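Sanity check

After download, print the first record. It should look like this:
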Amino acid sequence: MVAPDTYKSRAGSRLFLVYAVASLVPVLILGVVLSTNYRREGRDRALSQGRAQAAVIEQMAIAPVLGKQDLREGLDAREREGLMQATQLAVFSESVLRLRVRSFDGRVIFSDDGTTTGALQTSDPAFRHAALGERDVAIVSSAQGHGRVLRALLPIVPNATGRATGVLEIYLPYAPIAAQVTAELHRAYWRLAGVLAALYLVLALISWSTTRRLRRHASVREYESLHDALTGLPNRSWFGRRAAAMVDAGAHGAIVLIDLDRFKEVNDTLGHHAGDELLRVAAQRLRDGVRTDDLLARLGGDEFGIVLPGVRDDGQAAQIVTEIRRLLVDDVTLDGVRVAIEASFGVALFPGHGTTIEQLLQRADAAMYRAKRRSAGVMVHDPAALAHGADTDALTIHGELRQAIDDDELRLVYQPKFAFGSGAACGMEALVRWQHPRRGLLSPAAFLPEAERSSLIQPLTEWVLRRALADHAQWRAAGLDLPVSVNVSARNLEAPRFAQQVLAVLEASGRSASDIVIEVTETALASDGEAVAAAVAELAAAGVSISVDDFGIGSTSLSGLRTLPVSELKIDRAFISGLDGSPQDRSIVRAIIALGHGLGVSVTAEGVETSAVQEWLRHAGCDTAQGYHLARPAPWADLLPLLLDDQPATWKAAS
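Expected structure tokens:
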């Protein structure tokens, strides 16, 4: 197996090689283009030099000798002798290889060797251009064995007349000019090579620097994506991958889940900075407690995970984990306050307790919650206890409830709320049930408590919101205009952006804020003052009604209640059920009704199960009521006949 650092080094080398090749290609293309330009410029210089040399010969040696006549008339003896003398030295010194004087009709009037062999055809464009007064210079191959030569054709213009009288065809040696041009090209090529080499070196350095920074950045990003910023420990993703690899490989070991007990109290009492410090201390103590080959990670919040490779039985696992817990739970001083670190450990062995990481995490989590409930510290998954249903709730929450949400196994029933003044229904409270494929219809008590202890409460609440608002649209279309109440937990209210999520669901469903009532337990209101108050205030500001559920058994302070924008108090059923025989309960209910009216909010009695209780509440001034005596929870369609009646039978009987 390739080590991560080696893999990164190889990946970086490949990346640098790609950059180097990518940089080399444009440099080579640039070199080819510049070399081509240099060769073209060298050829142009050679032609220009040949043109100038031919012009000098024409002006200095040929034109002065010729008279005024047209060359078609031929040369007299004086002119021929003059041309021979003028060209003899040049031909002898090989500065001129061949020279001919021709008339416009193409006849060779004079030739340095006295022959006409090899004369250019009059049909050649070069000859025609010269006959028209232009100069034509080209590099051609010589038929006389001179190799490449400069051929120049230009009009002969005698000084006496200033008018072209014929065409001079002259061949000049190209080798000296080529040597000069080649020397200049070589110098230019060396300069070009130096410049391109410097350019490539710069590009290579840039590539090396860039790839180095990219490798560092990728390494940092990879580290950050797999590690927790607060504690420096690997995160859930890293833990899941490494643990799954060990489980899939068929190795023996144990999965350990750790949850710090009462961590929220530290956050609430001493502040989040103290909570962060507690997490850092816990992480360091866990580092000190694990073995060299053990895998330790922070899974999120106050939860940690450990993989213990090589562990084969419950006793060995319990011994190792107990020692780790002993090092963890020593007291720590935070902001001058001595705090006891408490933690619950759940253990599941592989492959004995599961053959997939999902099963093992589920069973370790269930064992951890059993340890928390029993204050046992460390619990190892017990298949026998599972068979007897000891961990049914925890396993249901973490194994089946999310799937139940996805598979639409949840159901909503509704319990109406009636107004004492009119006797008509004034609202519907949504209550969730679970139609379990094997265990039948489960009440909220079978799964909500465990859901509230896990992250599943978020998707569960969102499902209830969406379904309740969809049902609301249907019963409004059927002629029933009643708002729907949805219960939310403390974990919902403490979650970031919960209020925005509720409003987003409202908008997506096409419902208005007045169509929904959010019911919050009194205990939830007291759980995290700032977060809950902010969520409640944001919802109320958007027009959503807030109801305080189970009022009277929580710990909401009167000052807090005075500042919270609630619209309803719902008296807990514990006080309503005892109204018949408890003067104390009657006094408490009267006080709550008076308190609610004094605060300007309506008061609802929950759990009304007899006509006597209903009548007492009416005389006590209670605003609304709900309970089995009035209507049992049922699907909204089953409640339509009762709710669309102008005055339900139960209210008629009590009137």
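If your output differs, re-run the checksum step. Summary of this record's structure: The chain is about 50% helix and 20% strand.
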